User: Which sequence fits this backbone?
């Protein structure tokens, strides 16, 4: 394959990971934005989503689309519920102190991860995609008789990958609508702006926090359900999404939703494209160093404008 | 802490004498474990100087531990150095890295400091994997027995290993006890209690914190180098996130800001995880449960609680 089609293929792969990354990172960003805490266990909620998806598909049997559709509902609700319980049992009791929350969520990370190892086992388990038609893609070439379409061998994607991109975009629109257009969003914004004032206006801040923590975890779980037919469910799969979400949230400006989505697309695409041409390890080294430098020299993020 | 000077020195020397004596009665398995625990406890003592005394929570100390380990290991493996100079290489690597990371990371504070140190350590871990041609990545490499000699001391021998581990631990422990009675140590504690006020009193807090990072990082590197030399293995798993979290866990369990706490925490967690790993493969579950329990119920750890309730003089 020549360079052009190759780049297009890399971009498509990058777009899939960017879509999933955006969902995961928006979950982390919501939690940070409203609650001002960093949830280190976020990657494990992602992993739980994939594990629940596998479990649902496995027990239901039948056509893969059935299990997948059910998992799309069950996984976010179950994982979100679990996160809300964890918030109520642990985070609420330590008063959302930023540093202690990190230590506590590191503890949660190990509990969830090792719990999955005990219940789910150490194997990587595949989930069948609900539909998976191969779509060959054309490439425009400058031939002797002007522009013409060619169909390079190997330049193809699947209907499922396109569905992942569209579904992620739809969910992100939903989150935006929730935050900007609904009463629940207004309540969350108020809590984020000024916790004490929100309390004074009889906003149940405790319940808002539990809800936001659950919503953030639910988004991660949803992202995992979408990716699990392409990746595979494994109890250690939460590490990479956590690291990448950190990177995205920091580059995008802590707590800013549009910045987070923009950064996710940027990082996801670059990661996809760079890993095709360079070593993925080198790409990760550069990305982590970049994040550290952004935090040191531009703590409001690359796209954030308000200095804190 | 005031007034307990003589008592404190007596207590810590007594602990060291006890550790010296106990090796003659311990069965081989626990003898080896205790040597390992003392090396890891030296790491925890180093971590505690930054976390417990200066109040800076780093999530990237595995970078310094690994710097000592790989500084020594690569000097032996690639440079063919003797153990003595290789130790200096390990310490030097730890010192340089901690100064560099400190100079950058200390421009931030709180949660950002944790994430920056975490990112630097992650970059270091990935770099070890990336340069697999030299480091042999995940698999790691073994330090041959003939390289594990300091003059006439054969460090592969169990009794010698115990003595060297004890010597390192004693050095770190007594240094920590001494440091916290010096003006420098007092200033670090003042930063933990109230950084703005310390700055107002005329202290250059950035420089003091940098010194704390350097001391803590170099001590961690010393533990890493000793671990490689005493147990003969250098591997990337020692640079992974888990080895940044473990010293935090040990110090929290034993008591942050206490001199003996890191040792007690390491001892306790080592055996807890040792027992758990006999029962299940998911033994890190224990670490998670303990971390959550400590943040919920025992903020000051074992010795911290003891100091609060029983012995106010405990350093």
Assistant:
């Amino acid at each position: 394959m020549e360079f052009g089609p190759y780049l297009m293929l890399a971009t498509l792969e990058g777009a899939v990971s960017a879509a999933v990354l955006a969902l995961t990172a928006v979950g982390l960003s919501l939690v940070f934005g409203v609650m001002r805490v960093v949830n280190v266990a976020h990657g494990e909620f992602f992993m739980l989503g994939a594990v629940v998806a596998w479990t649902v598909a496995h027990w239901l049997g039948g056509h893969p689309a059935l299990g997948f559709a059910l998992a799309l509902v069950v996984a976010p609700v179950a994982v979100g519920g679990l996160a809300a319980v964890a918030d109520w049992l642990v985070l609420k009791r330590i008063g959302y102190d930023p540093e202690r929350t990190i230590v506590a969520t590191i503890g949660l990370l190990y509990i969830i991860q090792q719990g999955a190892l005990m219940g789910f086992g150490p194997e990587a388990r595949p989930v069948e995609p609900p539909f998976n038609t191969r779509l060959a893609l054309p490439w425009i070439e400058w031939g002797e008789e002007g522009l013409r379409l060619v169909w390079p061998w190997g330049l193809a994607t699947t209907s499922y990958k396109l569905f992942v991109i569209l579904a992620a975009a739809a969910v992100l629109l939903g989150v935006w609508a929730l935050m900007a257009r609904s009463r629940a969003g207004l309540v969350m914004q108020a809590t984020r702006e000024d916790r004490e004032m929100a309390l004074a206006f009889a906003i149940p801040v405790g319940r808002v926090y539990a809800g936001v923590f659950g919503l953030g975890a639910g988004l991660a779980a949803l992202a995992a359900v979408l990716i699990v037919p392409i990746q595979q469910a494994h109890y250690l799969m939460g590490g990479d999404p956590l690291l990448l979400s950190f990177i995205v949230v920091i580059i995008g400006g802590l707590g800013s939703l549009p910045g987070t989505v923009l950064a996710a697309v940027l990082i996801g695409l670059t990661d996809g494209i760079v890993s095709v041409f360079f070593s993925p390890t080198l790409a990760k080294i550069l990305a982590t160093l970049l994040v550290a430098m952004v935090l040191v020299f531009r703590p409001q993020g690359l796209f954030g404008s308000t200095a804190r | 802490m005031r007034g307990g000077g003589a008592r404190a020195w007596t207590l810590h020397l007594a602990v060291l004498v006890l550790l010296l004596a106990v090796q003659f009665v311990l069965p081989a398995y626990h003898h080896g474990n205790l040597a390992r625990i003392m090396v890891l406890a030296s790491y925890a003592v180093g971590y505690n100087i930054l976390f417990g005394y200066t109040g800076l929570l780093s999530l990237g100390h595995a970078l310094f531990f690994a710097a000592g380990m790989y500084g020594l290991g690569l000097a032996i493996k690639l440079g063919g150095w003797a153990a003595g100079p290789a130790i200096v290489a390990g310490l030097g690597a730890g010192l340089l890295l901690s100064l560099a990371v400190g100079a950058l990371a200390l421009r931030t504070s709180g949660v950002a400091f944790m994430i920056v140190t975490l990112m630097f350590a992650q970059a270091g871990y990935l770099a070890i994997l990336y340069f697999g041609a030299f480091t042999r990545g995940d698999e790691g490499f073994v330090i041959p027995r003939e390289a594990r000699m300091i003059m006439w001391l054969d460090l592969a021998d169990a009794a010698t290993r115990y003595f060297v581990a004890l010597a390192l631990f004693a050095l770190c422990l007594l240094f920590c006890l001494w440091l916290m009675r010096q003006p420098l140590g007092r200033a670090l504690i003042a930063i933990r209690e109230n950084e703005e006020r310390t700055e107002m009193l005329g202290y250059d807090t950035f420089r003091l914190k940098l010194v704390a990072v350097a001391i803590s990082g170099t001590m961690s590197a010393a533990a890493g180098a000793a671990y490689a030399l005493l147990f003969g293995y250098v591997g990337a798993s020692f640079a992974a996130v888990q080895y940044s979290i473990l010293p935090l866990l040990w110090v929290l369990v034993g008591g942050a800001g206490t001199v003996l706490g890191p040792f007690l925490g390491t001892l306790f967690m080592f055996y807890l995880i040792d027992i758990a790993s006999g029962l299940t493969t998911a033994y890190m579950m224990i670490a998670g449960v303990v971390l959550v329990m400590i943040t919920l119920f025992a903020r000051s750890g074992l010795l911290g609680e003891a100091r609060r309730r029983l012995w106010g003089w405990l350093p």
Q: What stands out?
A: Chain B has a mean pLDDT of 87. The two ends of chain B are 6 Å apart (CA to CA). The beta strands of chain B are 141-142, 149-150, 153-154, 233-234.
